[in-house]
Amino acid sequence: MIIPSFNFQTPEKYWDDAQVGDSCTSPSYLVTGERIDAYAELTGDYTPVHVDEAYAKASHFGCRVAHGLMGQSVADGLKTQSEYRFLPGMSLGWTWDFLLPIKIGDELRVRFSVGSMRASKSKPGWGIVVLPSELLNQHDQVVQKGEHRLMVPRRPGSF
Predict the structure, then answer these.
(1) What is the pLDDT of residues 148-158, one digit of tens each?
(2) pTM of the model
């Protein structure tokens, strides 16, 4: 596996470094047939609308589309490639809606913000952030959206 190198201009953030309203838009991701096929192989989801061109063309989509969870996975990955990122923590969960199909050739990016934050009650030294997020295509259409809840380390000595 070739791991891309990123030239970030800003350091990862502790929970204490974030503020409600902070926002960021990620780099982009090109959806290809090969990437959809790789996701199907990874997950075992070979539903024909994702992997069978003839079947997909006859469907109401008219073409192959990416798995909904592939879009969510891409959104999560794109956040980690953004200038606004946290020190490694723990994902607490997602609420996520699939609004429009993601098609081969779509160029996706995620726009997210800090919607709310609070210190953890059960884990001193940690804080919780809620990140409302939108997965956009090249036409600025929101194809998926929701929230990601994260537990993030606090700056040592700040609590």
Answers:
(1) 999 999 999 88
(2) 0.94
